[in-house]
Amino acid sequence: MLSGEPDDRESPLHIHLGQVMSRGEKMEFTIQKSIELGVSLITPLFSERCGVKLDAERLQKKIQQWQKIAIAACEQSGRNVVPEIRPAMQLEAWCAEQDSGLKLNLHPRASASINTLPLPVERIRLLIGPEGGLSAEEIAMTAQYQFTDILLGPRVLRTETTALTAITALQVRFGDLG
Fold first, then answer.
1. Which molecular function GO terms apply here (predicted)?
2. In this structure, are residues 24 and 132 in contact, taking their beta carbons and an 8 Å threshold?
3. Tell me, what's the pLDDT at 5?
4. Strand-pair partners of 106
5. pLDDT of 6
6. Which domains does the chain have, with CATH numbers?
């Protein structure tokens, strides 16, 4: 490699994070750290228990702010590609999108874990719910769209901790960490 060429620091694992929006700086923290950990794409989501209520103008400003956070996170971690922060959408619309990757929904009562997922995996669509979790109807809906419920462990985690823990575990198992 020539000294003028940048190192490729992109993960071989493509993770599309669907994160139900959280209040305050929690969403910013989740975006920043997820990108540092190698997430490829982030879609902010609205769900039944989403505590965030923004009008269209404020939401657009938030998306722009989050994209700036994404750029800064890439600079911090030495990434070559800045992940897109997509426009916010409803949970069901996101779940219904076509994707060839493995679809995962973190659920505290699931029986499967990341370690039980089959190898190899190159693409993952990762759903992280709000504080309080997804409603029973939303969990049933994710199953209709072929999402696999997985468990991270015995403790209930806050939404921002859940996202980062899951991304790290996925990168260790299928990506470039560890």
1. rRNA (uridine-N3-)-methyltransferase activity
2. no
3. 56
4. 150
5. 62
6. 14-174 (3.40.1280.10)
